Amino acid sequence: MYTLNADASQPKAEMYADLLPQCQGLLSDSRDMIVNLSQFSALLFNLLPDLNWAGFYLSAAPETLILGPFQGKVACVTIPFSKGVCGAAARTGEIQCIADVHAFPGHIACDAASRSELVIPLYFEDRLIGVLDLDSPSPNRFDEEDVKGINALCQCLITQTDWKWQFQA
């Protein structure tokens, strides 16, 4: 059993620096994709303040994301690359840090309580694995410190996971 903790009262850069070795330790027991995606989403959902959803949408053909492991309310099952914040991240390969999702063209409201969103596209060997999607009920929840810190955690996830399931024909 792991005891994980994060002090949300400290500066974000320090909080993320403290989370990185915890993430490495948590993911060291398995390289299985489903196990690691599940553990990672639980880590973020339980330790980052002010989230109402944390999870993954995985690449599926053609240009569609499908729901992966997550924490939070039930979610949209499929998202085309042409719609929503997750679709924009998958389509462009760029991190989407959205202060007000209701102002985002084509936003998909899986949970009407979500107000801001951070979506990080995940790549392994230049192939899109999917996206990490974080939602918050607060506007302007995410900033550059979150982008840097969560992106570093995602790199830990990518290097400690076997992605063979994602790329089977």
How would you describe what is shown here?
It contains four helices and six strands; from the N terminus they run ααβββαβββα. The longest helix has 16 residues, at 12-27. The protein has a single domain, classed as GAF domain (Beta-Lactamase, 2-Layer Sandwich), CATH 3.30.450. Strands 3-2-1-6-5-4 form a six-stranded antiparallel β-sheet, with helices on both faces. Strand 1 (53-60) and strand 2 (64-72) form a beta hairpin. Helix 1 (12-27) runs parallel beside helix 4. The protein is of the alpha+beta class. Residues 50-154 form the GAF domain.
Notable traits:
alpha+beta, Beta-Lactamase, globular, GAF domain-containing protein, FRMsr_CS, Phosphatase_reg/MetRdx, GAF-like_dom_sf
SSE map:
Layout: H1 12-27, H2 33-47, E1 53-60, E2 64-72, E3 78-80, H3 84-92, E4 96-98, E5 116-124, E6 127-136, H4 144-159
Antiparallel strand pairs: 1-2, 1-6, 2-3, 4-5, 5-6
Helix pairs in contact: 1-4
- Morphology: globular
Task: Give the helix level as a range of percent.
Answer: 25-40%
Instruction: Tell me which CATH architecture applies here.
Output: 2-Layer Sandwich
What fraction of residues sit in β-strands? 15-25%
Rg result? 15 Å
Number of helices: 4
Number of domains: 1
For this structure, what is the CATH homologous superfamily? GAF domain
The first-to-last residue Cα distance is: 35 Å
pLDDT averaged over residues: 93
**According to CATH, what is the class?**
Alpha Beta
